[in-house]
TrEMBL record:
Pfam families for the chain: Exo_endo_phos
SUPFAM superfamilies: DNase I-like
Keyword entries, A-Z: Endonuclease, Hydrolase, Nuclease
Gene3D superfamilies: Endonuclease/exonuclease/phosphatase
Full protein name: Endonuclease/exonuclease/phosphatase family protein
Stretches that traverse the bilayer: none
Keyword S-adenosyl-L-methionine part of the UniProt annotation: no
Domain called Endonuclease/exonuclease/phosphatase: residue spans: 14-222
GO molecular function terms listed in the Swiss-Prot or TrEMBL record: endonuclease activity
Length: 253
């Protein structure tokens, strides 16, 4: 059971590696995945493995199900007509939150990886799924830290794929504080805190945790992590009418 937010003004962010909606029972069930996402009561949800790997990488979560069964709108990262995200990374925004800019970032490494970023008001959200090798992860985090080095309050969250508490995360030292909500992998018997949330100056962690309700324990091999944050340095999230869409965002090279 996820607790209520400590302050009504807190923003709830979440990260979830949905494994292409493939559950531990080997059934691909987007409806089950959406029930887990809806249960997080989040404003912003960062997803990993949101698209299938082969061919044109079609979305594992169908767009029409997101539209009709959730209160979320996907940020438009896809570079084709069938994917939900880019390199499997997607970000869902609660209706009424409007992105002002989006970004794609190619990451170095042994296998193709990328990060996605969205600016909402004064806050930047960066979604990541880092590589399997620590040497790759170090280079990838260094690339992300170098790209987003300004003073904008920034959250980096996702599947960091790092089994150690601090080793491998050194590139974020100085600007970011890395938080570990808890053990999120393997969902059947969580032993590793692979999913992390890093906050820059201007953001304060209020609460965080791992969702362990029954649907989450079977919907993927990862459990979702969540955090309630407060924008403490004069920042805000832009909110407009529910009719607004991600089409108004500025794409950055």
């Amino acid at each position: 059971m996820i607790p209520n937010r400590k302050e009504p003004s807190d923003v709830r962010i979440a990260s979830y590696n949905i494994r292409k909606c493939l559950g531990l029972d080997r059934r691909r069930d987007p409806g089950r995945t959406l029930s887990v996402i809806n249960g997080l009561d989040a404003d912003i949800v960062v997803l990993q493995e949101a698209d299938k790997r082969l061919g044109a990488r079609p979305a594992a979560l169908p767009h029409d199900m997101l539209e009709h069964e959730t209160d979320f709108v996907p940020v438009h990262f896809a570079r084709n007509d069938v994917s939900l995200g880019w390199h499997g990374n997607a970000i869902l925004l609660r209706r009424g939150l409007v992105p002002t800019a989006i970004d794609h970032l190619d990451l170095p490494g042994t296998e193709p990886r990328g990060a996605v970023a969205v600016e909402i008001g004064d806050v930047r959200i960066v979604g990541v799924h880092l590589g399997l090798l620590r040497s790759d992860r170090r280079r990838q985090l260094a690339r992300i830290a170098d790209k987003f080095h300004d003073d904008r309050p920034t959250v980096i969250l996702g599947d960091f794929n790092e089994w150690r508490a601090r080793t491998g995360l050194e590139a974020l030292d100085g600007r970011f504080r890395v938080h570990t909500p808890g053990r999120s992998f393997h969902a059947a018997r969580p032993v590793a805190a692979l999913d992390r949330i890093a906050l820059s100056d201007g953001l304060e962690l209020r609460d965080a945790g791992v969702e362990q309700a029954r649907p989450a324990r079977s919907a993927s091999d990862h459990l979702p992590v969540w955090a309630d944050i407060d924008v403490v340095r004069g920042g805000r999230l832009t909110s407009t009418s529910p009719a607004a869409t991600s089409a108004s965002a500025t794409h950055r090279a």
